[in-house]
From TrEMBL:
Protein known as: protein-N(pi)-phosphohistidine--D-fructose phosphotransferase
EC number: 2.7.1.202
Organism: Rahnella contaminans
Catalytic reaction(s) noted: D-fructose(out) + N(pros)-phospho-L-histidyl-[protein] = D-fructose 1-phosphate(in) + L-histidyl-[protein]
Keyword Transport: yes
Gene Ontology biological process terms in this record: phosphoenolpyruvate-dependent sugar phosphotransferase system
Cellular-component GO terms for this entry: plasma membrane
Gene Ontology MF terms: kinase activity; protein-N(PI)-phosphohistidine-fructose phosphotransferase system transporter activity; protein-phosphocysteine-sugar phosphotransferase activity
Enzyme class: transferase
Keywords tagged on the record: Kinase, Phosphoprotein, Phosphotransferase system, Sugar transport, Transferase, Transport
Domain PTS EIIB type-2: 10-108
Pfam families in UniProt: PTS_IIB
Gene3D superfamilies: 3.40.50.2300
């Protein structure tokens, strides 16, 4: 199964951040990368962890994305930059333990206009 809009892959941006900024931040990023390979979608991930912000998303990334996944257990840095984007908010534990729910929500949110937010 692939996640596509028409004939092109969907483009997803993600932020991962946990309370301590250590293991779960990076485990969530790895899970999203694995899902992208398995379900054939593009993903670029910004981690906000103990090492600071890595792989910071650019304005161009944000302007051209199909949706944003915020996998976080804390308030992320600069969330307002995603105003006007489709956004899925998910706790890291939910992403790690139930990635199928995230996939279902990705398919669902693509039917909504930009600016829609879904919390799972």
């Amino acid at each position: 199964m692939s996640l596509k809009t028409g004939t092109s892959k969907i483009n997803i941006l993600a932020i991962t951040a946990c309370t301590t900024g250590v293991a779960h931040t990076y485990m969530a990023a790895e899970k999203l990368e694995k899902l992208a390979r398995e379900y054939d979608f593009g993903v670029k991930i910004e981690t906000q962890g103990v090492l600071g912000i890595k792989n910071k998303l650019s304005e161009k990334d944000i302007e051209t994305t199909d949706l944003v996944i915020i996998a976080a257990d804390i308030v992320i840095d600069n969330p307002d930059r995603f105003t006007g984007c489709r956004v899925i908010n998910v706790r890291i534990s939910s992403l790690l333990m139930n990635p199928n729910q995230v996939l279902i929500t990705i398919k669902k949110i693509l039917h909504y206009p930009k600016g829609k937010t879904i919390d799972i």
